[in-house]
């Protein structure tokens, strides 16, 4: 067990670094970023508003002038932050402050300035005194570069986390509590009307994309209900700005518990519905397979009550594959629902991720990806340990 | 208690059926499966009797309805199958008329069953001891140490070495033969009056097969239970059975004592079955086979079901043959003996 854990944690460590490296590299390839945002501003507001010095300052602040490998290690572990051992390599170039320019002259006399090489290298000595995070590995995700410029990413995540945790926690819990019994009952009553109904609904639930349900829910329960003068639900946001009146219920104060609850209802229902579809289909399939097994027939032939056959002999076995799904739950809990959160303008981590991705806020994107990778790996580790508990045939080793 | 000299007496006795000793009488049992392709008449009008302490063997090819017959007795046929007709009088009461709850009390207590694949017939996530004590708990209300003690007794009885530690193991930690011993211990836990053994040795190695057969014989002497032994292995029949039923395509085609079957098989199908058995020391060009295959049970032939594969076929075989009673209680379903 100890040997297993040591080996697995070492593996997880390696996987995390590789995953971080790959996502960092991918993100680097994506065009855009804080400097592009500045340049866009410059175009919009006249030549003189933003000059080369401004750009350099922004690059410096966000380490964008440091070459990618060093930028990555500075992000990961906060190193290097100056000459090594105090003095070694003070003049080593690890970045470029001002790109070099080459004058290309065409035969017809016109010319063009092309960036090439480097006019002013960034040396290790110049890194000294520059603000650097302690490194992701030590829990410092750096600062946001676009969304909330200069605010620590951890602050940004902390303000969004409760929204995601409540939304995902409630929907996953409800989905398991409802979906698992439905799956079991569906399997036990295979080909019954209940089974047909549930499998059809589950099929629809797991095949339509989630924004369809979100948009239809808003259309029916907000827009049409309000138009018809029926009680309606607020279409989005987690907290209201203005008081509003709902027929039969009365005035709802913005920011009150009722306001928050009403706004919580729709996204959580949509997510629960989608999750129920997934869980119940999975449990049904697994249960159906187990019910075919010889040992279930043995249990019946022993005189075990049918109810006990299902809940003890069959269920215990059908939960073995079910444990695999739990690996993803931990990551999903913190990852949030990208699409549903966007549809309902829900200020959770899922929407933060999409925002950050769209606006090239590297540190935020990387922080969320990194947390997700770590949680997923922890989830898988827990799953592997759980397996040995549910299935005696499986040994850690 | 049957001892060796009594065995031959028992064979004689099997022929004249004194009603008192009859444990189970199956009459006109029909079990059909209602599938999308049509109604599969897996068991179509089967009659037989089992006397107390008797070992009755049911033989036939795959798909002849042997297993379905045995599961029908325990009423363990699940959808889309159903017992559509017949009576199964067990100790004077019709099993088909019993409520599900009464039936459940009979299963594992008065009638128990062992299966073909011992390794998959045990639940992989429970310790074998717990699976045996569960039966003791259901039918005898034994719990805790009392159940454990009885469990160790049972495991010792079926010859599992070191039962006290074995009972804390999971099925995957035991071999196939050991699992079958556990299954037998579980089946005999409540000293049933009838034990249904559905090909109990088919999945085992030949040496283990012999051990398990020895064990079953020993147990039969010990607790005086009647056994319905389902098999396609005529060797097993010769070793174990008092009387034999030969099934073909969902029907009983012959019933006789084990000696009579081997000495003088009547039904052409039985003859074929016996001829297709390899005999040690006998040199043959190739193994005799019965030509053709079992007919579809969705639309079985209206006449004799074996006719298409029978070498003695004549005009009359287009009509369904009745069960013909012969001397010594033998029965055969064939126009040749009319």
From TrEMBL, chain A:
The chain crosses the membrane at residues 12-30, 163-188, 200-225, 261-279, 319-344, 364-390. The keyword Transport applies. Residues 161-383 form the ABC transmembrane type-1 domain. It is found in: Cell membrane. One of its GO terms (cellular component) is plasma membrane. Keywords: Cell membrane, Membrane, Transmembrane, Transmembrane helix, Transport. It is a multi-pass membrane protein. One of its GO terms (biological process) is transmembrane transport. InterPro entries: MetI-like, MetI-like_sf. Belongs to the binding-protein-dependent transport system permease family. This is ABC transporter permease. The lineage of its organism: Bacteria, Bacillati, Chloroflexota, Chloroflexia, Chloroflexales.
């Amino acid at each position: 067990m100890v040997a297993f854990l040591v080996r697995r944690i070492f593996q997880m460590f390696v996987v995390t670094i590789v995953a971080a490296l790959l996502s960092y590299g991918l993100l680097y390839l994506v065009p855009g970023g804080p400097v592009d945002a500045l340049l866009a501003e410059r175009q919009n507001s006249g030549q003189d508003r933003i000059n080369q010095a401004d750009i350099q300052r922004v690059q410096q602040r966000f380490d964008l002038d440091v070459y990618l490998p060093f930028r990555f290690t500075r992000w990961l572990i906060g190193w290097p932050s100056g000459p090594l051992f105090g003095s070694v390599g003070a003049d080593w170039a690890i970045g470029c402050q001002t790109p070099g320019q080459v004058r290309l002259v065409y035969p017809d006399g016109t010319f063009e300035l092309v960036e090439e090489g480097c006019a002013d290298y960034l040396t290790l000595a110049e890194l000294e005194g520059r603000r650097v995070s302690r490194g992701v590995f030590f829990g410092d995700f750096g600062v946001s570069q676009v969304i909330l410029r200069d605010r620590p990413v951890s602050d940004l995540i902390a303000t969004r986390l409760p929204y995601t945790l409540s939304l995902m926690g409630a929907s996953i819990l409800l989905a398991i509590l409802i979906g698992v019994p439905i799956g079991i009952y569906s399997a036990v009553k295979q080909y019954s009307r209940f089974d047909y109904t549930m499998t059809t609904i589950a099929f629809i639930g797991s095949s339509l994309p989630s924004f369809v349900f979100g948009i239809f829910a808003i259309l029916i329960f907000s827009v049409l209900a309000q138009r018809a003068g029926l009680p309606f639900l607020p279409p989005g946001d987690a907290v209201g700005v203005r008081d509003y009146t709902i027929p039969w219920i009365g005035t709802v104060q913005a920011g009150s518990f009722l306001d928050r609850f009403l706004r919580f209802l729709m996204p959580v229902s949509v997510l629960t519905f989608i999750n129920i579809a997934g869980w119940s289909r999975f449990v049904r399939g697994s249960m159906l397979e187990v019910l075919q097994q010889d040992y279930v027939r043995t249990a019946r032939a022993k005189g075990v009550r049918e109810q006990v056959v299902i809940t003890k002999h069959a269920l215990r076995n059908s939960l073995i594959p079910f444990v695999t799904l739990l690996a993803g739950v931990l990551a999903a809990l913190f990852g949030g629902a990208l699409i549903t959160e966007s549809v309902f303008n829900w200020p959770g981590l899922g929407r933060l991720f999409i925002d950050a991705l769209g606006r090239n806020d590297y540190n935020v994107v990387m922080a969320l990806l990194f947390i997700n990778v770590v949680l997923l790996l922890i989830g898988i580790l827990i799953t592997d340990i759980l397996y040995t508990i549910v299935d005696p045939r499986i040994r850690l080793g | 208690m049957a001892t060796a000299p009594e065995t031959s007496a028992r064979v004689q006795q099997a022929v004249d059926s004194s009603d008192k000793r009859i444990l189970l009488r199956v009459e006109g049992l029909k079990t059909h499966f209602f599938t999308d392709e049509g109604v599969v008449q897996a068991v179509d009008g089967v009659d037989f009797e089992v006397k107390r302490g008797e070992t009755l063997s049911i033989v036939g090819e795959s798909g002849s309805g042997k297993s379905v017959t045995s599961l029908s007795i325990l009423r363990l046929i699940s959808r889309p199958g159903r017992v559509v007709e017949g009576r199964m009088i067990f100790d004077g009461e019709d099993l088909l008329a019993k409520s599900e709850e009464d039936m459940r009390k009979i299963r594992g207590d008065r009638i128990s069953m062992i299966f073909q694949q011992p390794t998959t017939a045990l639940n992989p996530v429970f310790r074998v001891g717990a699976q045996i004590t569960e039966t003791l708990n259901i039918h005898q209300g034994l719990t805790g140490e009392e159940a454990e003690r009885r469990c160790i007794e049972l495991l010792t009885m079926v010859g599992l070495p070191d039962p006290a530690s074995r009972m804390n193991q999971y099925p995957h930690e035991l071999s196939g033969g050991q699992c079958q011993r556990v299954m037998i211990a579980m089946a005999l836990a409540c000293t049933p009056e009838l034990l249904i053994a559905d090909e109990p040795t088919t999945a085992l190695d030949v040496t283990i097969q012999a051990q398990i057969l020895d064990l079953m014989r020993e147990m039969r002497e010990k607790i005086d239970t009647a056994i319905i032994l389902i098999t396609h292995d005529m060797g097993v029949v010769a070793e174990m059975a008092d009387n034999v039923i030969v099934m073909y395509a969902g029907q009983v085609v012959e019933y006789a004592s084990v000696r009579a079957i081997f000495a003088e098989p009547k039904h052409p199908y039985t003859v074929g079955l016996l001829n297709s058995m390899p005999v040690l020391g006998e040199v043959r060009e190739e193994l005799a086979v019965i030509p053709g295959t079992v007919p579809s049970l969705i639309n079985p032939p209206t006449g004799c079901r074996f006719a298409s594969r029978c070498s003695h076929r004549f005009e009359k075989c287009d009509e369904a043959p009745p069960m013909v009673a012969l001397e010594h209680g033998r029965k055969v379903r064939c126009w040749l003996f009319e």
